[in-house]
Write a structure and sequence with these properties.
single chain, alpha+beta, OB fold (Dihydrolipoamide Acetyltransferase, E2P), five-stranded antiparallel β-sheet, 29% helix, 40% strand, globular
Length: 101
Amino acid sequence: MTFIANMHVKVARRLHSNSLRYWLLEYLRRQPKGRKYRALILKFVKDRMGALLLVEVGMQVTTTISRGKVGDQVSVTVEIAHPRDDILSVGEVVEDTEDSE
């Protein structure tokens, strides 16, 4: 009996997680193109490929990072968001930090 209940709980959790991810992707898809999002660098997977946390939506994504270290905040834009295909692609916004006068 406990086994069946645990199995149903697992299914319910997976359904909730998938539903939440779908609606987060749909939210990102509906936002204006070029909108910047704050992201926190969590870790580097390989070379400059980093795992980021999108602060506004609490979602983890992976993309290439040109500079920064773990714990730094970077700006990213959503390049592709397809909720039905479970696809999210983001790109780093490289901001010029030098004052040009």
